[in-house]
Structures are given as C-alpha cells and as structure tokens.
Amino acid sequence: MSHRKLADEMIKDIQRFVEEADALYRVTIPGKVVELRKLLQHLEQTGAFQTRVTIHQHPQLPRATTHQQPQLPGGHHGLENISAENAGAEDALKTCDPNLHKVMATLKPYYTEGLLHASKIHTWLALLVPRSTDEFSVLTEARDAIHKAAEPLHVECRDGLQGIVDFYRVRAKHMSKACKYPLVEDYRVTVREHDETKLAMLHLSLQTLGERYIVLYDALFKNNDIVNAPLIYKTDAMY
C-alpha cells in the first residue's frame, strides 16, 4: 500500500474518532449522568452502603476461652488452641461484609468506562487544530478548559480501581493480625472500621463520579462551537 493510501486511511480513522468523540459528548456522557444518579438512588434505597453486622459479629474470628493465655509477638500463634466450640469459624475469615463486594463489583465497570471516556476526550482534543492563526488562542483556551474538566474524571476512576485493590491488601493484613491475636479486640475493631470506612468512601465516590461527568459535559457544552468546528485534513500535508 502506497504512502498516499496509508495517509487516506489515517485521515478516515481520525475522522471516525472525532465522530465517536462527538457521540460521547452528545449521547454517552448525558446518559451516564442519568444512569449514575439512578444507581446512587437504588443503592441508597436498598441499604447497600450500610454494613450488615455489628461490631462484635464482624469479623467472626475464633474467640479465646478462659483457659487461654494472651499471645505475645514472637510466640506461638495459630488457631490450634481455640476451643472446639469455635470450629468452622475460620471459614468466616475469608469473607467480608457482603455489601462491600456488591458495591465494589457494581462500581468497577463504571471506573473502567470513565477511564476510557477521559482518555478519548484527551486524544480528541490533541487532534484539534486551528483553521487559522486567528483561532489559535481561542481554541487553546477551549482545549485547556476541557482538559481541566476531564482530568478529575480520569483521577477519580483511576483511584477508584486502585482503591479496590488496596482495600483487599490492607484488609488481609488486618485480618492476619486479628487471627494471630484473638484476645486483642482492637484488631477486630480495626477490620470492622476498615470495612465501614470503605463503604462510606464508595458512597462518596459514586456521587463524585456523577459530578465529574456533569462538569465535563458542562465544559464541552460551553466550548462546543469552538472545538466542533469543521476540520479539513489535507492529505498532502502528511507527506
């Protein structure tokens, strides 16, 4: 395939990408705002942001009996000294509050989509070029405004995905301590507080995610006439 044909294909790809970005602004983002608002209302009404257990029920760790002595760091630890009445309780160590699993599994696809949407907006802005030198400063200001509106969406979604990974890693450390020192109630409380804090942060994150889309749409709407001006790509300029 000749260079000219490759250039023509590239121009078609660019134009197709610009059309997809325009659809993102006109259809996808407004729809996502409505979808996130309904999701937030549904989760709030169903009590998804509330833990289902009390402080002493969660985590369900084997509790020491009266004949046990407190375990010290460096000593022998494990569940072998726990009385038989707590048999099977170690299975509960593998789970956390069911609402946490539900909310995180629900939000994860939205975080992934948000990253893709923000990335597409950034790439689309990079493809915009002024048709004349007189339009350069106006277009630059418009691009900067949209960039600033898209970046918080990117950060919120990136931190949301990383926060899910961090939650399980930190929780595993707290649980291991609670298992090794069953007499120390503070470790149980730490795990419980960790779960409650994460639920509260997910609640706030979902609300913030919708607001990030609103701010991005507002920036696109206010600068629509500038950034959506017809662009003419000349093949000869690519040689």
CATH-level-2 architecture: Up-down Bundle
Number of strands: 0
Number of helices: 5
Quaternary organisation of the protein chains? single chain
Task: Give the ordered list of helices and strands.
Answer: HHHHH
Categorize the overall geometry: elongated
Give me the secondary-structure category.
mainly alpha
Gap between N and C termini: 15 Å
Task: Estimate the helix proportion, in percent.
Answer: 55-70%
The largest sheet is: none
- Main CATH class: Mainly Alpha
CATH fold-level topology: Four Helix Bundle (Hemerythrin (Met), subunit A)
Q: What fraction strand?
A: under 5%
Tally of individual domains: 1
CATH superfamily: Proteasome activator pa28, C-terminal domain
Low-confidence stretches: 64-94, 232-239
Report Rg.
26 Å
Mean pLDDT: 81
Explain briefly what this protein structure is.
With 239 residues, this protein is mainly α. 67% of the residues lie in helices and 0% in strands. The chain has helices spanning 3-45, 98-127, 136-180, 185-222, 224-227.
